[in-house]
Design brief:
CATH topology of the largest domain: Naphthalene 1,2-dioxygenase Alpha Subunit, Chain A, domain 1
Strand content: 25-35%
Distance between the termini: 11 Å
Bound molecules: FE2/S2 (inorganic) cluster, fe (ii) ion
Largest sheet: 7 strands, antiparallel
Strand order of the largest sheet: 10-16-15-14-13-12-11
Order of helices and strands: HHHEEEEEEEEEHHEHHEEHEEEEHH
Number of helices: 10
Length: 385
């Protein structure tokens, strides 16, 4: 493996002895070489968010995903457990599953018909030893099952750890649980096991590096400039940034705000045309993002595709005590579509701006609003070291 693409001085200025921190060099956001390092070193050692349990609701449901450039299959096995395998046939290596499918009893390679169980066991190898002869002397079928990937399913969210060395996910996610538990604006009924999925907004491929997408989500500095109307109820002075180990993000603390409780309050809160509640925007490094806004919870899937391309998808949930009608749900969906469209314009504009060598020495960070980005970029530098 080649050496780190970051020079010692580029790492040192992420946390300078004095003056504002500088960001990662421009190449971290634009260079395919840097992205390759992230795929080889950073993503494999962390828990990477890849999808939702509701994407594979029943045994035999299968969803191909790409993580760190690796093709993977997420599926639900016969016992109802979510499992992940490398999406690569053990014969000659064709991608085994091309698109999502439902209720399969086996996975059959389209190339030469090798077939695998939902637990990854290789079952059949038709004609492998000659016409109507599946066997070859010395070939041990048991050694050629699908290669599993360490997987955790936490509530509706599926994460994978490619190299198998990350701390157990329950431990890794504990800081998110604690933030939510200790949040001043939590309501009585905030129980993660009660969350109900109410909608998906797929933003498709965003023309920006995955780090720009995450950084935009966690820093609050841009809110009054970019979301003047859509987040008009969240003035800048109610925001603060969060950086705590692998947990980075921000929060909005509006005195007197709380989750709605009565049916009428829920309807009124959910049909407002702007965001005006207290909120938590949390990211467990590198890409597991959850937003808590009173009655609404949103997970954000940021899937890195290339140095300058990222797939982004929102999934909206409500707590068990909330029972929104179709109008309220559409209103939430519409507001979040608008807010994120505003963000995507900034993200894609950032990627275009970074084409200039002016940013070779990296951004300059506000110590007040952007220490969460500083922490995030330090984690990136450590991740590829
Ligand atoms: S590559 Fe899959 S059966 Fe040949
Ligand atoms: Fe934003």
């Amino acid at each position: 493996m080649s050496r780190s693409p970051l020079r010692p001085d580029e790492i040192a200025r992420l946390a300078p002895a004095e003056g504002p921190a500088r960001g990662l060099p421009r190449s971290a956001f634009t260079s395919p070489e840097f992205f390759r390092h992230e795929c080889e070193r950073l993503f494999p050692r962390h828990w990477v968010f890849v999808g939702h349990a509701h994407d594979v609701p029943e045994p035999g449901d299968v969803m191909p995903v790409t993580v760190a450039g690796f093709p993977l299959i997420v599926l639900r096995n016969r016992d109802g457990a979510v499992r992940t395998f490398h999406n690569t046939c053990r014969h000659r290596g064709r991608k085994l599953v091309d698109s999502a499918c439902r209720k399969r009893t086996a996975l059959t390679c389209p190339y030469h018909g090798w077939s695998y169980d939902l637990d990854g066991t290789l079952r059949t190898t038709p004609h492998f030893g000659g016409y109507r002869n599946p066997s070859v002397a010395g070939f041990d079928k048991e050694a050629f099952g699908l290669v599993p990937v360490r997987t955790a399913c936490w509530h509706d969210w599926i994460v994978v750890n490619l190299d198998g060395t990350a701390a157990c996910f329950r431990e890794a996610v504990a800081p998110i649980e604690k933030r939510v538990r200790d949040w001043d604006f939590r309501a009585e009924g905030w129980d993660l096991t009660s969350l109900r999925h109410i909608g998906t907004i797929d933003f498709g491929t965003v023309r920006g590096n995955w780090k720009i997408v995450v950084e935009n989500y966690i820093e609050p500095y841009h809110v009054p400039f970019v979301h003047t109307q859509s987040c008009g109820g969240q003035p800048l002075d109610t925001h603060f940034a969060i950086s705590e180990g692998l947990l980075v993000g921000s929060a909005v603390s509006i005195k007197g705000s709380r989750a709605a409780v009565s049916k009428e309050e829920q309807e009124a809160a959910s049909t407002r045309k702007q965001l005006d509640s207290s909120a938590l925007y949390l990211v467990l490094f590198p890409n597991f993002a959850l937003g808590f806004y009173g009655d609404l919870v949103i997970s954000i899937l940021t899937a890195p595709l290339a140095a300058d391309l990222t797939h982004e998808r929102f999934d909206l949930y409500v707590w068990g005590y909330v029972d929104p009608g179709p109008e309220a749900i559409e209103s939430w969906m519409d507001l979040n579509r608008r807010i994120n469209a505003e963000d995507i314009r900034m993200i894609e504009g950032m990627q275009e701006g970074l084409a200039s060598p002016v940013m070779d020495s990296g951004a300059v960070m506000s110590p007040h609003w952007e220490h969460c980005i500083q922490q995030f970029e330090k984690l990136v530098a450590e991740g590829i070291a």
